[in-house]
Each structure stands twice: as C-alpha cells, then as structure tokens.
Amino acid sequence: MKYMLLIYQNPATWETFSEEERNRVMNEVGELMEELTQSGEWIGGEGLADPSNTKTVRVRDKVPAVTDGPFVESKEQLAGYCIVECETPERATEIAARWPDARYWAMEVRPIMEPGGEEM
Amino acid sequence: MSAAPASTFEDQLRELAPQVLGALVRRYGHFDACEDAVQEALLAAAVQWPDQGVPQNPRGWLVTVASRRVTDQLRSDQARRRREDTTGALAPRDQVEVPDRDDTLTLLFLCCHPALSPASQLALTLRAVGGLTTAQIASAFLVPEATMAQRISRAKQRVKATGIPFELPAEAERADRLSVVLHVLYLIFNEGYTATSGPHLHRTDLTGQAIRLTRAVHRLLPEDGEVAGLLALMLLTDARRPARTRPDGSLVPLEEQDRARWDQPAIKEGVTLVTDALARAPIGPYQLQAAIAAVHDEALTAADTDWRQILALYDLLERLAPNPMVTLNRAVAVAMVRGPEDALDLLATLDADDRMARHYRLAAVRAHLLEMAGDTAVARAGYQTAARRTTSLPERRYLESRAARLRDAR
C-alpha cells in the first residue's frame, strides 16, 4: 500500500530555529530519506515553497478567480510531502513519527487510492 | 535460424532465463553476480536475435554470453581484492559440467525464501525466475524504476548475507517452503488481476507471468494437488477477466457479467486440473477455492449457479483454513441458499474481529445482504460506508453507484 505523508510546519516557529537546529532537522530528514531509499520503501517526495507563494484558484460561473495565499489561513501549513510504500499502515505511521516535523508540528498519513480492484 | 515476431523472442527468453541462471549459479556460485550477468545476456539476445535470428542452441548461447560476463566480473572483483588485500586471493572455482537440468524450482525456493520481505520476494521472483527487466517490474507495480532496482538489489544482498543456499529445501521443510512460493505466485497473479483497463495495461501482464510460472511449477511437481489447485484457480479466475471491467475501467459484478465473453478453453483447463487434483491428492485451500471458481464458471447464467455446492465448499474451506475473509464469502453463499437473515447473523460474528470490523468488504457484503432483505435505507448507508473505506478507485466507484441506485429507487 502506498501512503502520502503530509508534512505540516508553522513557518513562524521555523523562523525562530537557530541555524544549528535547522541543520539538525535537515540532516535528520536526509538520513531518513536515505534509509527509506535503501529499504525500497521510498517512492518520492518534494518540499513546498513558503506558503506566501501560494495562489488559490476557484472557478465560479466559468470565471477563474485567482487569489494570493493559501485556501485555509492557519498556523500550520503544508510544507511538503513524501510517498512511501509500506507492508502495513503501522509502518507508515512509524515513519511519520520519525519525521522531525512530527515533534514540532504534525504529520498526516493518508493512504493513496489504488487503480485496481476486485469485482464483487 | 528463423525470423519471428518480437513477442516470441521475449517469451522464449523468459522461459530460458531461470535455466540459464541455474546453470551459472551451479558453475560459479555468486547468485548476485550471475543474476546480473543473465539479465545482460537476455538484453543482448533481445537486441541481436530479432536481427540475426535465433541461434541453433539458444540456451547454450545465453549460458556462454552470461558466463563471459560473470567471469569478467568475478575476475575484476578478484583483482581489486588482491590489490586491497595481499593476504590471499580467492581460488578460482573448478569448471564443472553444466548438467542439463531445470533449476526453476530451486530458484523459486531461493527467491521466495522466508528471510526476504514479501515485496522483495515478488520482485526477485519476477526478475530471476520470470526473466522480466527491472523497468518492466517497476511499471507493473506502479513504482519508479529506482525503487524497484533498490528492492531487487536489497533482496540479493540479503540472499548473500544470510547465505541462502542454492539447493532444494530439506524434505522436512519443503511443504512450508512450497506454500510460500505458491503464495508469492498468487500475489503476483492478484496484482495483475485486480488491475483494470486504462493507463496501467502493463499490470495485467502479471497474471500471464504468474500463470506461466505456476504452470512451470506444476510441470515439475505434477503430483502436488495444491500446485494444480493454484494453477486451476488462476485459470478459472482469469477466464472471467474479459467480462469483469467495462471499457471505462469500471467493475462489473459477477452476476452482471456477460458470460459469453468468458474464456472457455481456460475454464475447461481449470476444471480438468481441479477435478483431477481433488480426486487424487490431499485436499487443500487452493483446490477448494478453485472448485468454487469452477462452480461459478460452469453456470450458464448467474441464476443457474449451484449455491448449495458453493456453500458446501466454503464450509469445508472454513474448516480447513479458517479466516474471516472466508467467513465473509461463505455468508454470501448462506444468503443465496438460506436467505439474507441467516447470513446477516453470520456477519455479526465478524464485528468482534479487529481485522474485519473496519474492513470495507464487511460493510459492502452487509449492505448487499440488507438490500436483499429489502432494508433499503440501511443498505444504502452501508454501501456509502464501504465506499469511504475502500482504497481502490474502481471499488469506490462501484460502491457509490450501488448506493446511488438505492437512492434513485426510492
């Protein structure tokens, strides 16, 4: 089963981190990614630009309206994601718990829909 | 020498892959290096044979080319080791005669060794025994090639590190080890079978590969009833594939399938296999599941289905290999024979099971039984619950349409 791990951060707290703290977090992420690549569980992932670069698009009556800023104004914003393939949902949760962002903010674990299925 | 279409070369190469690999491992040891060398030889053949024709002795050609690669590799490893470590060099292995034997089974036992993770077992089996390339396996499993390459290399490292021998398991553990092999082949089949049409056509190749490999095991172990049972189950299930999806990829339930589109030769072969196995071998779960599939496949219309026989087979299966999924399927048979109320009582026993309580299949079957019982509103809510719980897009679509049908019927 593939899972998307959504990484949430509060940009305001991130900015208060010292250079050393930021490096520690980044190194931790690098090591974890390397470990997941080695284990064959890593499928992919990306970091997202700061939420201030977001544009929200809505089409109403066929007219697109583009506004600056994220859809939801909240302290914790989506900062990145990764996709892993795991034997069990427990394993996916375990990986999320080891992501440093989980200690400061939150990680969300969402199963990815599969294109195949069984007839009933 | 003869010219033939590309697919023939590919099939022939895949058939030869485990035999060539077996010959190499027997001669040189070093499963890891030999496996790489065989892949390179297969690639060379795929490029050269269509142009230059198939050599007189294709197996000999592949063994020669792969041997050359593997000796080059081992020699350069040895030279490096000699440079790094002056205390001693690896003595070259004696050249041994390559016996004319089929090592497919030995290779399968190695690739499906319990020390490997299920994902590694599947990947290694398809590459080393199935002769598929890493890119083909990656595309079938919908993962990036780098991820699949990593799984295969990790599996090979593990084979090396745990010293898994290249030999048939001892008699005492052979049955257990064979059941792992059969399970891996079943998983490969299922991965391909559940794929629906659309952008993922490569996936359906997996059913063909699984059938081909299971056929090879059946050829090597013709007396084994469960091997025959699994092959029959695959054939009888795959026979319905042309009717199980619509062109848009949506799923057609068994009772609505156009049975004229079922593959009759596959059904005939499957029925013969399972009938023969049940008559002479100790009974097992694959044979029983194949027998159930055979009863479905032999019914001319859904209404002709012999549900009494299916129920009797599920009773046996549940006694032999109890499992909540079997109970769930048995409940459907109970409903068809004795009515939905008895079946709903049976389902209630599954609510206490942690694995099942939140499973979409339980919600889906319950909704189906409630619909049969005429409890439309609760059935509709049940389909919606099941639709939210499944992680399969076509299943969600099917369950949502069942819910919508009940809403429209009101």
Q: What is this entry, summarized?
A:
The complex is a heterodimer of chains A (120) and B (410). Chain A is an alpha+beta fold and 120 residues long.
Describe the protein.
The complex is a heterodimer of chains A (about 120) and B (about 400). By secondary structure, chain A is of the alpha+beta class. Helices cover about 35% and strands about 35% of the residues of chain A. Chain A contains four helices and six strands; from the N terminus they run βααββββααβ. In chain A, the strands form two sheets. Chain A has a four-stranded antiparallel beta sheet with strand order 2-5-1-6. In chain A, a hairpin with a 2-residue loop joins strand 3 and strand 4. The radius of gyration of chain A is 17 Å and the shape is flat. The two termini of chain A are about 20 Å apart. Chain B is an all-alpha fold and about 400 residues long. Chain B is built from 20 helices and no strands. Chain B has helices at about 5-30, 30-50, 60-85, 105-110, 120-130, 135-140, 145-160, 170-195, 205-220, 225-240, 240-245, 265-280, 285-300, 305-320, 325-340, 340-350, 355, 360-370, 375-390, 395-410. In chain B, helix 6 crosses helix 7 (about 145-160) and helix 8 runs parallel beside helix 10 (about 225-240). Chain B is elongated, with a radius of gyration of 25 Å. Mean pLDDT of chain B is about 90; it is low at about 85-95.
